[in-house]
Amino acid sequence: MFDFIHHLFRPKAAAPKTWHTVTLSPAQVQRHAAWVEQCVFLNWLGPYFKAYHLRKGGAAGARGLRVQLLQESGCQGALLHYDPSIGPGNFRHFYEHLGERILALGYHRACADQCTQHHANHTATTLKQLYKPNPVDCPKTGHCDQRFGLITVDLVAMNQQPVFIRLMSNAVRQPGFTAPGSFDELLKCLLDAPPADAATQALVREYYDLF
Question: Which domain of life does the UniProt lineage start with (predicted)?
Answer without folding.
Answer: Bacteria
